[in-house]
Design goal:
Rossmann fold; P-loop_NTPase; alpha/beta; binds adenosine-5'-diphosphate; binds magnesium ion; 36% helix; transport; ATP binding; six-stranded mixed beta sheet; four-stranded antiparallel beta sheet; ATP hydrolysis activity
Length: 239
């Protein structure tokens, strides 16, 4: 579904991604781990061109999306993204937050968009919050709305960048549970996280990044039980 080839990205003199290659199969859950500053967010943001690669290719569903004649907005509709900060529209209700893109961008009839949104809200355990404003929700609830909002566009892949890092510990689980259910339903997912138990349990493949490179990748067992590199062993010792 996604293929990244020889991706390089620099911010001024800072070489942030160095010849990164990555493939994600349909239905696969790929978890990216690694120290702060290792390039995880930049890699994720290159997948939907929120960051423009300096060299290399990003191929999504057979289309080289860093070609200049590709309509990136169309492509982005197929790639849901959930950030650490929830980015909900504060002046809209939960329902409006979820339906605005399907109505505006996908020309969904309001009735249908509302029905889908309510289904999604039930799926993330917030069936009773449709008419609330985001300010009335907890962090965990906001993040579940953000997930529902991304799902409302019927994406082919979901990208998560530390979705639980801004949450109080007691709210982390409710968000991870929703993500776990998505994974078991067969959603293709690329997840940056520091939740190692979640990575172990839900990841099909774990990627360890350090210094702008993929240092090691493998099954959860490979990575967590028999890490090969000293850098990965050292990183894991902090958890
Ligand atoms: P991670 O997500 O693994 O913590 P990032 O991809 O956010 O790492 O960042 C990798 C490096 O690139 C860091 O040194 C960070 O400071 C730098 N960086 C990220 N975004 C920008 C930007 N927009 N401008 C300049 N430097 C950036
Ligand atoms: Mg990051």
């Amino acid at each position: 579904m996604i293929e990244v080839k020889k991706l390089n990205k620099r911010f001024k003199n800072l070489h942030v991604l160095k010849d990164v290659d990555l493939k994600v199969q349909k239905g696969e859950v790929v978890v990216i781990i690694g120290p702060s500053g290792s390039g995880k967010s930049t890699l994720l943001r290159c997948l939907n061109l929120l960051e423009v690669p300096e060299s290399g290719d990003v191929i999504f569903e057979g289309i080289k999306i860093n070609d200049k004649d590709v309509d990136i907005n169309k492509i982005r509709q197929k790639m849901g993204m959930v950030f650490q900060s929830f980015n909900l529209f504060p002046n809209m209700t939960v329902l409006e937050n979820i339906t605005i893109s399907p109505i505006k961008l996908k020309k969904k009839p309001t009735e249908e968009a509302n029905r889908t949104a309510l289904d999604l809200l039930r799926r993330v355990g917030l069936g009773d919050k449709a008419n609330y404003y985001p300010s009335k929700l907890s962090g965990g609830q906001k993040q579940r709305v953000a997930i529902a909002r991304a799902l409302a566009m019927e994406p082919d892949v979901m990208l998560f960048d530390e979705p639980t890092s801004a949450l109080d510990p007691e709210m982390v689980k409710e968000v991870l549970t929703v993500m776990k259910e998505l994974a078991y339903d067969g959603m293709t997912m690329v997840i940056v996280t520091h939740e190692m138990n979640f990575a172990k349990e839900v990841g099909d493949r774990i990627i360890f990044m350090d210094g702008g490179k993929i240092v090691e990748e493998g099954s959860p067992d490979d990575i967590f039980t028999s890490p090969k590199s000293e850098r990965l062993r050292e990183f894991l010792s902090h958890f």
